[in-house]
Amino acid sequence: MSRAGGSNKGQRPPRQQSHSKLVNNSPNVMYHGTTKEAAESIKREGFRPSEDGMLGRGVYLSRDPSKASDYPLDVNPADRRVLEVKVDLGKVKKIDQQGHPLQKTWQTKGYDTAWVPPECGMVRSGREEDCVKDPSRIKVTKVHKPTSMSSQSHGSTPDEY
């Protein structure tokens, strides 16, 4: 199922805690939390898909910068970075329940991205999550250093790029 929404031509998407819709026209601004070292590697070599996760193989992103600021979970917040990226979502499949028939197989059914909407019960934080099959659909535009894990609306400040 593809998700479509209104056009934001020339405008940056609003930064909100949760986004209820994905826009499948290109590009969508999303975020990826990682370590400082991994951010440098991703800038040089591009993303490498995770081998497994809640949605199977792919690159995990969110439209919520504060969610990305919380990752990786096991890393000191001072060593975290948030990559701001532009994503060509392609064909999107909404996965809105645990045990969904395509939860881990959407990649083999003609979809480019899987989307978990906010507050659907799949993610403990209640925030949305996305998994992109092909890393070449993702372009890093900025690297941010998270400044606050909960209080700041943007969740990050620009870092060197």
Automatic annotation (TrEMBL):
Keyword Thylakoid: no
Gene3D superfamilies documented for this protein: Diphtheria Toxin, domain 1
GO molecular function: NAD+ poly-ADP-ribosyltransferase activity
EC nos: 2.4.2.-
GO CC terms, sorted: cytoplasm
Pfam families: PARP
Region of interest (Disordered), residue spans: 1-74, 141-161
Biased composition (Basic and acidic residues): 34-51
Domain PARP catalytic, chain residue ranges per copy: 1-161
Keywords associated with the record: Glycosyltransferase, NAD, Transferase
Biased composition (Polar residues): 14-28, 147-161
Nucleotide-binding among keywords: no
PANTHER family: GIG2-LIKE PROTEIN DRED-RELATED
Family designation: Belongs to the ARTD/PARP family.
Protein name, as recorded: Poly [ADP-ribose] polymerase
